[in-house]
## 1
Amino acid sequence: MRGSEMRRRAPEFRRQSRRRLPGWIWWLVGIFLLVGLMLFVIHHNQKEQFRPPIVNKGSETEEVFHEKVNFTEELLSSTSFARQLADQMTLAKAYVILAKEHGNLQLAWELSSQIRNCQRLLSEVAVSGRSITQEEAHPIITRLARLIYKAQDSHYDISTTIVTLKSHALALEERAKAAVVQTAEFGQLAAESLPKNLHCLTVKLTEQWLQNTKLRSLSEEHRNSTRLVDNNLYHFCIFSDNVLATSVVVNSTVSNANHPQQLVFHVVTDRIHYGAMSTWFLMNDFKGCTVEVRCIDEFPWLNAASSPLVRRLSEMETKGYYYGGLKTPEREIKFHNPKFVSLLNHLRFYIPQILPNLEKVIFLDDDVVVQKDLTQLFSIELHGNVIGAVETCLESFHRYHKYLNFSQPIISSKIDPHTCGWAFGMNIFDLIAWRKANATALYHYWEEQNMDQLLWRTGTLPAGLLTFYGLMEPLDRRWHVLGLGYDVDIDDRLIESAAVVHYNGNMKPWLKLAIRRYKSIWERSAMRWVMRFVSLTHACNFAVCCNVSLCCPKDSKRP
Ligand SMILES: *[C@@H]1O[C@H](CO)[C@@H](O)[C@H](O)[C@H]1NC(C)=O
Ligand SMILES: *[C@@H]1O[C@H](CO)[C@@H](O)[C@H](O)[C@H]1NC(C)=O
Ligand SMILES: *[C@@H]1O[C@H](CO)[C@@H](O)[C@H](O)[C@H]1NC(C)=O
Ligand SMILES: *[C@@H]1O[C@H](CO)[C@@H](O)[C@H](O)[C@H]1NC(C)=O
Ligand SMILES: *[C@@H]1O[C@H](CO)[C@@H](O)[C@H](O)[C@H]1NC(C)=O
Ligand SMILES: *[C@@H]1O[C@H](CO)[C@@H](O)[C@H](O)[C@H]1NC(C)=O
């Protein structure tokens, strides 16, 4: 019945619309012609692309190698399906934002689900190294095109478009900056060179530490506090050599906590920054919370015999690996930078040893800002897992195969390449489960396997993905929003709703390079410091400032 009714009505509808909008037909015809032309060109090109290897290279192995498609080239090629999909996806993402702004959640939802399909296809193809076929691409391209058309047509008037374009122009400017920064060498150098005045602050604070014996005995007293081992309180750990950044993390955490006095921070730094860090946290009160500062040299168990990483670092040091002893291509600067392999960065794998009496702890990177009360994280059920983290494969291709070398049988035999990646930076750790699972031993195992850096090149995340494989509990993604150090296009509402925002990437908020849009969030928690700091720099004579000897607590007892 219904079918026949519809059939009866359909012609009327069609006739009506033809009468009203004759221009549409022309549009449709035009689009069909265009698509037809594109398909022809693509088909033609694909045939041509496959010819050269057969002509040029005789051996069969070469041919096999060439058939494995280079995904980067595929994305850059103007005719490939991958490129078309990627372009459409970008447009669709813009319209998701617009649709949400207009409260059209249905459209936003439809667009998002097509974007996800598109990402899934791209990710599959990236793993398998083949190119996308027309049969795979066609339905997604058609559906996306239809939705984009719907979005363009039905909702967004010219003024919206102008506003959007304006904000895009701003974003473009930032992106141009980002593009420069992302190029390996420059970005790395720029990110590494700490602003002079920040360095000066450290020196000033260290000077105070050395001159003021009261500060040192006060710090000794604090070390005996029972609060540091009280499992009824909320414990956080931060491993950093940046006084200002650590201060912002602590300040933003306590400022948003319902009961700041119940928070305990365990800061571990290196011997160079120990004095400055201690002085800063003794001089400033952060709403009555407890801050313990320790020096990495205090841990006798962290030595070359027990830790493969320490062994590798000391081997590298003797080889002069970092500072030009080895001839390395310039673009590999990043991989030989001490910061990337620094011990402080890897301390996250030793949290149960650092805090032997504790049961649960939140780990925070020094480039985050906290915006909500984090104590609720302590009551989240981890289901026996060791670590709680937000997953990162929703918006892009961040699956395990992106971080690890799956050509290595030791990886491919144990790990599923499609496992969703996750992020360090704001994590809850169940230290009881950790000890039970021997996670530190697992970490040592993987570091041993990676002595020649064939499993992964650098960084702590690949090691973390392996160590906590199958031991990770996914958290709601609003707990931890990433990318404020490189992504200029993050949705404002996502940032607002985030419990923690993370400036991962080269454009740290304390550098000139910082992305303007996000800088104020960080500065809000550093305001008083900024004011003090300005007056400090005037008084600071660099030559004199830097003439101080640096030491850890055990050294300071000696004289
Ligand atoms: C893929 O293509 C890009 C750009 O042409 C090139 O830089 C890269 O080295 C290629 N990768 C492989 C694995 O061939
Ligand atoms: C802290 O404890 C240690 C031993 O646990 C003790 O030797 C030291 O005197 C104590 N320091 C203070 C300031 O109470
Ligand atoms: C953890 O390691 C210890 C010593 O290395 C070993 O005795 C114990 O059996 C291990 N536990 C598990 C669950 O692997
Ligand atoms: C990945 O492993 C293969 C096989 O051992 C090796 O030839 C290749 O160099 C590794 N890739 C990287 C980037 O280390
Ligand atoms: C902590 O943050 C508040 C604003 O939330 C700011 O007024 C204060 O100066 C900051 N304190 C320090 C020591 O940075
Ligand atoms: C640095 O310190 C040394 C010894 O402590 C002293 O001899 C030297 O004059 C100082 N240099 C400056 C620039 O203050």
Note: The CA atoms of residues 478 and 498 lie 5 Å apart.
## 2
Amino acid sequence: MKKELNLKSVQTQKYIQAWLAAMIRAGGQTTTDQHAQARIAVCEVCQHYSQVQPIPGLKMPGCLICGCPSLTKAHMKTYFSIGKMGLKVSECPHPHGNKWQAVDEIFSNN
Ligand code: SF4
């Protein structure tokens, strides 16, 4: 039987809040909640959407291509990339093209 993820657990909520706070401190810009929910709705019907493990022992829904939890990356317009050592636009890495593009265009003025 598939184990349900407890997204309201203290550990999960602390991880999400700490990650978002770190990205904002690093200069990242957030989306509105409505924008993030629209992105997550796109992910929820994608074949690459499953469980990711951002830190050992913590599983969350997310993208198997980039490894990012949807409850973090979808809430950012830009985020700090350690690999690039700078701010990066938060976008869908789908091999057939950015699946968030249409949603991002709708929310581009927010
Ligand atoms: S490939 Fe894009 S749409 Fe699919 S889960 Fe990853 S971020 Fe979401």
Note: Residues 42-43, 46, 48-49, 63, 65, 92-94, 99 surround iron/sulfur cluster (CB under 6 Å).
